[in-house]
Design a protein that fits this description.
The structure is a single chain. 7% of the residues are buried. The chain is α+β, with helices and mostly antiparallel strands.
């Protein structure tokens, strides 16, 4: 079962980076603000999935990720 992952990116001033979803009827939650993320693929851990999503969606290369539950 795929695990959904969300990444919270906050700068030193405490401001968050979020995305505004477009009005595409084929996506979940159109026209809403959301954190970046997606589902883990294959045997990925949640941390590996978050790192991949940041690379795919933002072009950011991250070496490690901290998980908070």
């Amino acid at each position: 079962t795929p695990t959904g992952n969300r990444v919270i990116i906050m700068n030193a001033e405490g401001r968050y980076l979020m995305q505004f979803r477009d009005d595409n009827p084929g996506i979940r939650y159109p026209l809403l603000w959301e954190f970046f993320g997606g589902s883990s693929e294959g045997e990925e851990t949640a941390a590996q999935g978050m790192i991949r999503e940041l690379r795919e969606e933002l072009g950011i290369e991250v070496q490690t990720a901290e998980l908070e539950v």
